[in-house]
Prior knowledge:
Elements (H helix, E strand, L loop, with lengths): L26 E5 L15 H10 L4 E3 L5 E3 L2 E6 L5 E6 L13 H12 L17 H5 L10 E5 L2 E5 L7 H4 L10 H7 L15 E6 L5 E5 L13 E5 L4 H9 L5 E2 L7 H8 L3 E4 L3 E7 L9 H9 L3 H8 L4 E3 L28 H10 L9 E7 L2 H15 L4 E7 L1 H9 L6 E7 L6 H4 L17 H12 L3 H18 L2 E7 L1 E5 L3 E2 L15 E2 L2
Parallel strand pairs: 1-10, 15-16, 15-17
Antiparallel strand pairs: 2-3, 4-5, 5-7, 6-7, 8-9, 9-10, 11-19, 12-19, 13-17, 13-18, 14-18, 20-21
Helix pairs in contact: 8-10, 14-15
Protein name: ABC transporter substrate-binding protein
Subcellular location: Periplasm
Family: Belongs to the bacterial solute-binding protein 5 family.
Amino acid sequence: MHPRRRDWLAGAIALAAVRPARAADALYRRGNDADPETLDPHRSSTVAEAHILRDLCDGLLTYDNRGAIIPGAARAWSVSEDGISLHFDLRPDGRWSNGEPVTAEDFVYAFRRMLDPATAAKYAEILFPIRDAAAVNRGEKPADALGVAAESPLRLAISLAQPTPYILELLTHQTALPVHRASVERYGDSFTRPGNLVSNGPYRLADRVPGGAITLEVNPHHPDAASFAIRRVAFLPTPDIAASVRRYAAGEIDSLSDLPVDQIADLRRRFGPQVVLGPALGLAALVVNTRKAPFSDRRVRQALSLVIDREYLADGLNGGTMSPAYSLCPQGLDHYRTPPETEGRLGLPIDHEAEARRLLAEAGFGPDRPLTVEYRFNISDNNRTVAVAIGEMWRDLGIVTRFVYTDAKTHFAYLRDGGDFDVARYSWIADYSDPQNFLFLLQSGNDGMNAGRWSDAAYDSLMARAATERDLSRRAGLLYDAEAIALRELPWIPLMHYRSKALIAPRLHGYHPNLRNAAPTRFMRLDA
């Protein structure tokens, strides 16, 4: 029996309408999921950080507010016929927020720093398509072996290890953002503090309150600064979604990037077209600690997966703002085919209980020896509801579930640093529309992302072969076979695929839901 749906907005029947801003109020108050762990782009790993960094920094390429790739620090680029060599011509008027020119050497320094093992970048693997990037990151080659070179002050060359279909999209990612060398060398880890941070993007850091607002103001030296309608933006952490909706209704927040999904129908009634749903490239899953018995036993993982009612999670608890996931990769990725699926879509979860009991019995568990699972998650209204529902589904098998929850920063740091756990919630928003960006998470050695430390030689071999395969059809087949292994072994149990969901105040214009969930402040405006 599933738990009752909670009324997240109980007691808030008469929500006030969003108040119009005063003419003198030019601040865009932007809800942003969580307090970022860092503003160092090379140590960043979360979507909340990416939203802020997209405003602070211009990579060679960037996104517009419809998710299209557009020029960033580069005004033009070319790719060789063999797909190996790329050249970028930088904007001659590009400037750091201290007025210094942005040069090709700045990007050489940034790429080398990103891949320097001393940086301990969580996302280093993203840039491994660059020639010798993996060897540099492992400390096997010096930094100057990296396939990035300044051919002139405004011309940058990048050499790849092999053709990479999604390379241009990779260069929009926060790992490819530049940092100001003199500031890093002067301030060390403190270079991201207000007063120290020098950025080359549309905005610069004005203030940061720990656990509170991160305020940006227009970078006056940016070549397009005069065109930015919004001059100041405050990113507000909003982990308590129900409370954030109340703040939005009171006119204290202009946009929210997440909603209490079991109240979507009520929110639509209250706010009408201010509720905006859109596509997304994301996965919610349970990471299983494959280093630890009994979760190292595939039969246990399969039993846990079989009885999860994904349709109920997606439609019942999340109001149709998510879709049931039986695969790691969502439908519609570039350079792929229809993904394989794990067992469980056919029939109802109750139809799979007998098989799940059989698997648990084979693994040594039953009424006289119940399986106990510690379920860790980062605290939010939505995450708590899903956790309790899954615990109820497992209870029907006699499984005892204990819950451990922390804030998002602590949760993901714990997983990344190899903490001891049984099963943990994990979410992933793709950085580019390609199956590799989901499947690389489970490669051996990717300890920053592969929290369960799963390792499979056949999987790794298929991923390695796909990385060097130039024929896109054959590459898709190799990646399909790799995903099929992961869905059979279930080191990650897929739960749901994401859709974007937001509240957008009537006074905010220029927000367009898109697959990349890109909404740079520079392309939006506020009514006075």
